[in-house]
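Thread: Newbie trying to understand structure tokens

Hi all, I'm a second-year student working on a class project, and my supervisor (Dr. K.) asked me to get a predicted structure for one chain before our next meeting. I've only ever worked with sequences, so writing a 3D structure as a token string is new to me. If someone could post the tokens and maybe explain what I'm looking at, I'd be very grateful. Here's the chain:
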Amino acid sequence: MTKVTPLSKPTIVKKRTKKFARHFANRFMKVDSSWRRPRGIDSSMRRRFKGHLPHAGIGYGSNKKTRHMLPNGFFKYVVSNVDELDLLMMHNRKYCAEIAHNVSSKKRKEIVERANQLNVKVTNANAKIREEEDA
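---
Reply by user tm_fold:
Sure, no problem. This is what the structure looks like when written as tokens:
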């Protein structure tokens, strides 16, 4: 079986990789750092005064062609059983399969086996698979 490569692998450009920090997250422990829009009527952060943190906005959005693209050039498709894997038969150069976290190791082996037949890349093919020991 040949190694599956993406149809096209454009360079993924991120306008910003750093997370946007919530206002006062550095000042109070009770305020988590995950982004929340400032809404106070007198808030200098909301009014975007000089010296304040940058706001999350539409301008930081990714290129539409590379949005949600993995570094290997594929788009991820979460698979729970063999039937869902068959959807990727004609799209194996654009999408790769990722086996859902709640799938048993028995079903995982079946999915990986079928993916090899369909020439579909599986990102987490080795997860939850143990080597059997002869004792």
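A couple of things are worth pointing out once you decode it. The helical segments are 82-85, 105-118. The chain has a mean pLDDT of 93. Feel free to ask follow-ups in this thread.
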